[in-house]
Specification:
Number of helices of chain A: 3
Oligomer: homotetramer
Low-confidence stretches of chain A: none
Helix content of chain A: 10-25%
Largest sheet of chain A: 5 strands, antiparallel
Order of helices and strands of chain A: EHHEEEEH
Largest interface: C-D, 26 and 25 residues
Number of strands of chain A: 5
Mean pLDDT of chain A: 94
Distance between the termini of chain A: 16 Å
């Protein structure tokens, strides 16, 4: 049903207010997404180099529930929130070492022809990947 | 009714897919917000050092309408979307040199007591600042 | 003899230790370099898209003399430290509003064939650009 | 004699030129340093919160030997290059999966009284930590 990535909050994620600089949460979400792609056997670097559709992010959002502080090790859980014809939405929950929810985020990925820039149907390979994430733990590093 | 900040997309905003790395749009939004605070005479550094409530971001979202590319000079227009009792929401529109909308974003700022971490009423100084932004151009740099 | 770019230290440059996160100084140096390229009429985006040699950075260094804090407006002065056959070195001095030196940095740019990855002679256009920077103020924004 | 940290190059490390944005190498070096501090039982967050001297970076440098590309998993090896009275220097070698050197870096850490901003003698705890790194592998994650 989901996939979880573990990652500590490092100094470069924080700012002078003493907590995470808010856009870095989405950077951490994308890092978890890239680790998931590795796990699925389709690393992002291959996808960018290949000839098929690209999957740029068309929308993102994040909610900050509790302070995210330097040194916390986050468990970032990814789930598939929606699978459309031309796009899909991933959800992220960020928890601390005790399982307390610290933040949530979403990213919408739109399949796009890299030459025309027009939206296209989700490739079968992507549909299969989404099924594998929905179907149960791909791995837990 | 709004305030506009101009800023080029630099190499550090982009990624290997050739366009802006999506969380950097929110970094640019916050940079425009900090420039607005300067203009209002309340720079962020003073706010963080003072004793009153802090205004951490409790939620953000962004929509990417067209590719944001290296070298484009963005006009980032800030408006007040909502003024509540304990929080306010800013809206951002990102346009290119021809006035074409490239992206939109929102940030929700929640007034918080820095010792207890509890939400509190928006300080009068913040209400005044929001009125100035709503009342018309503070400046156009 | 030099060229100066002005830029405030923003929240995203800082970290939980309350000052600039040290690699961001080099990000600011590169931002000043990109502004210089704009001023010379050779924006980086054009250089990357064109067919000639690229100029990746082969070495960098930075010295931190005084704390660089949120809200300071930096004057970043760029000078040409060395012009070689296949590379050149730029120097950066970072000063506060009172002209006090806060930091220094250097970047070494190596001309490289984008297909072979081998170093090549500096293109004439680059030599001309370096002369213009050495010859006196290109501009002072 | 050294300590090694493994970390993939993620999209947020890269730029529109298709390789790592050069200051991000130093960000990766610091992330490896923070992982080392965790391993030594002295996480950075504790050091910043405690009352003793702080250890800001007074100098850094980096050499880029080969292109660092999206998806490569770096082995970052840390060694102690110099131990002085009031500062120490760490060296970093970045290798790919085949053991090929891609880049090198150094950071100089200066012990400083957090109230006066003056340099002070290295605390004993830091000397012990340096000895442990010099003495052999602390761990290999």
């Amino acid at each position: 049903m989901s996939w979880t990535h573990h990652k500590p909050i490092r100094l470069h994620h924080t700012d002078a207010a003493g907590i995470i600089f808010f856009p870095r949460l989405l950077e951490l979400a994308h890092e978890a997404y890239e680790a998931l792609l590795d796990e699925l056997g389709h690393p992002l670097a291959e996808g960018l180099a290949a000839d098929g559709p690209i999957l740029p992010i068309g929308r993102c959002e994040a909610d900050y529930l509790r302070p995210l502080k330097l040194g916390m090790t986050l468990a970032i859980e990814i789930t598939v929130l929606r699978e459309g014809n031309r796009s899909f939405t991933l959800g992220y929950v960020f928890r601390d070492e005790n399982g307390v929810d610290l933040a949530r985020a979403q990213t919408v990925h739109v399949a796009m022809d890299r030459r025309t820039g027009k939206s296209v149907a989700l490739p079968d390979m992507v549909r299969l990947g989404l099924k594998r994430v929905q179907g149960g733990p791909v791995s837990a590093d």
